[in-house]
């Protein structure tokens, strides 16, 4: 059954007369009669009881009338949604480093999920180098990278929230008496850094002439294992604030001084056609920045 023929059928149902329906549809009466007969033959049922001046529907005709109207309504709604770019479905793949400060982005994602029942988000945790590569090859739709990095090869938005570096350590250490941690405080202890090279380069200037005395005993990808090691009471973990495991009650945190921060940057591939879901995410993100 074609939607065109179903519309013709509904017109005949409403007019109860082939000639009047043909006039309304601007087609020849014999052509409309033939298409109704062909529809009956296709379905193998009689749809009309044909009288001299008026036709009436059979039981099968009433059944098809109701179903045809449902199908036409659905077809119109689907067409409007597609042509108006309103339909939001599918997956969105987002890569990100770990940071408490990307919470505003997570709130946007939560809003989208609440208002659209056929969407799905895939999150990929990784370093900036890895995320950039995956955005570039198309396996990620968006990436959220941390740090001052060259991003001219991507479209980008810089988020207002910044990540601040803290020292994480066992509260039994003398450092717990300090409000802030300066470079001279840390050369007395083994230090755990992120394995990402950009982070280590950032600290070279912070250490100044003490850089060669730094005892970097471990590097980590994610923060949890490093927090466990720091909780043993010998090493100091240097990471973004709020990333250490708060369930480890013997841990405490102090900001580094001078203060060190990293930006959060949302990137996506240049000239890539985004899905409706991707465009919605980007629209809400831009609106949040404008506010």
Automatic annotation (TrEMBL):
Gene3D superfamilies registered for this protein in UniProt: 3.40.190.290, Winged helix-like DNA-binding domain superfamily/Winged helix DNA-binding domain
Sequence ranges assigned to domain HTH lysR-type in this UniProt record: 1-58
Top-rank taxon, per record: Bacteria
Keywords associated with the record: DNA-binding, Transcription, Transcription regulation
Pfam families, sorted: HTH_1 (PF00126), LysR_substrate (PF03466)
PROSITE patterns to which the protein is assigned, alphabetical: HTH_LYSR
Family the UniProt entry places it in: Belongs to the LysR transcriptional regulatory family.
Protein name: Transcriptional regulator
Organism this protein belongs to: Lentilactobacillus fungorum
């Amino acid at each position: 059954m074609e939607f065109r023929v179903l519309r013709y059928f509904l017109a005949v149902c409403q007019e109860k007369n082939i000639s009047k329906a043909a006039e309304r549809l601007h087609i020849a009466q014999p052509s409309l009669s033939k298409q109704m007969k062909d529809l009956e033959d296709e379905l193998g049922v009689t749809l009309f009881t044909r009288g001299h001046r008026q036709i009436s529907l059979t039981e099968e005709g009433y059944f098809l009338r109701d179903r045809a109207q449902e199908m036409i309504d659905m077809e119109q709604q689907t067409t409007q949604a597609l042509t108006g770019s309103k339909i939001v479905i599918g997956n969105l793949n987002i890569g990100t480093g770990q940071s408490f400060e990307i919470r505003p982005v997570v709130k946007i994602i939560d809003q989208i999920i609440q208002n659209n029942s056929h969407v799905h988000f895939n999150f990929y945790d990784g370093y900036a180098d890895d995320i950039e590569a995956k955005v570039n090859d198309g396996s990620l739709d968006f990436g959220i990278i941390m740090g001052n990095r060259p991003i001219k090869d991507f479209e980008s938005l810089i988020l207002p929230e910044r990540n601040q570096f803290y020292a994480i350590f066992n509260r039994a250490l003398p450092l717990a008496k300090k409000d802030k941690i300066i470079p001279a405080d840390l050369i007395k202890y083994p230090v755990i850094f992120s394995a990402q090279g950009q982070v280590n380069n950032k600290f070279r200037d912070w250490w100044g002439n003490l850089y060669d005395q730094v005892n970097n005993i471990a590097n980590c990808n994610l923060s949890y294992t490093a927090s466990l090691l720091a909780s043993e009471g010998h090493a100091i973990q240097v990471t973004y604030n709020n990333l250490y495991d708060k369930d480890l009650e013997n841990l405490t945190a102090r900001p580094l001084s001078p203060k060190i921060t990293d930006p959060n940057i949302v990137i996506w591939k240049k000239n890539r056609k985004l899905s409706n879901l991707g465009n919605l995410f980007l629209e809400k993100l831009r609106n949040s920045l404008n506010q």
